[in-house]
Predict the structure.
Amino acid sequence: MNRIITWTIFLMITVPVFYNFAGAAGTDTPETPTITEQPKQLKQIILTMGSWRKDDVEQVNVILHKFTEKYPHIVIKFDPTSPADYNDVIEAQLESGTAPDLFYLRSFSYSKKLFKKGYLSPLNDLTEIKKSFPQQMLEAWSTPEGALYGIPLMAVSHGIYYNSSFFKEMNIAIPDTWEQLLALAEQIKQQGIVPFANATGDAWTVNGLILQNVIPNIIGGIEGRLAYYNGDRCFDDEQMVASFQAVKDIAPYVSENQKLLKYADSLQLFIQGKSPMWFGGSWDIPFFEEQSPEFEWSVFAIPPPEGKKYYVTFHPDAGIGLNASSQYIEEAKLFLQWMATSEFASLLIEHLPGFFPMHNDITVIKNKHARVFLGFNDTYQTDSRFVWGKIRDGEPSAYEISLQSSIEVMNNLITPEQAAKKLQAGLSQWYEPAKRCTE
């Protein structure tokens, strides 16, 4: 009896097992189980990005996060430093092998020097880049032979911010000529008001905000600039003297203690309504909007001397380069290629108003103040800053000479004629086209 029970139990256990392996009843060959292949998980890569823009950490991180959404295995860590120290810091990092994978590049000469030293990876293999940006903008991060070493990131525009509530109250019209601007400044000064909030406490401001932005109107934009670069004009001619004279023209209309005022102080003079005008750049839009002054404000293009054409300085301000020693060259190039897309351009416009993408096609700009600045490009001809090109490549550079001379002219230490002669004499020490004017 026990043997029968045991045999029955054995059959109850083994038959179902045999059925499972054999498949459906009546078949002799078992089916092969189906295995679903899982996508290969890519190793997470962390790229570092250096910059001189400490004010933009939150905004840039939003943009970088959008890139990571497209490429989840690549995270970019934004690590900016002080703008005053940036050039020295990045070069020291490159020399020591501790530089970030990607980093902001100044336009023209300084970045070109880094490329010639072998610190920047060539980028000509990124073929979509040349289709996405105007050649004029690519030249800011290219050698004369056409080697590309940086991708255009953002440009800035320049003009004169003005207290439009004050202008409306005083029934003041926007000046059309430099002479009208000076007459307006005199009218405002007669009321006991300082017309312009600008100052010289920070060395770069007079050169960067005034001199470089009146020069195109006086010399005739890009054609005039190239005439100097090619040696067809001398750097101490009448037009260059007139450019330094424009700086002197403004001197009576800034604060009496302007030598003691820093950039941030002069911004406050405008924000607090103490001065109704300010030579400035588009990058200050977010600051002014955040401060929410108690008046309406806008910006107008710097007017040319009577009989001259309008030109606006639309300057390629920052590009991004790839550290030639990076361990993640291919991953970094994915980001640089993404920079050429309309998606990136739209994100830049949305999150950094006042910094403009340099793409061939720029999408709609919602910020009303940024629209005004960019609208100058549709109305007037544009050029980059006069001393940022090849005349900055040697020592003494045109940038350093003009920076110091513009301060001295503003403070009545030298004449415009002397400033122009200093520029010509300095450049003739090393710049071949300038030497022809001294021979």
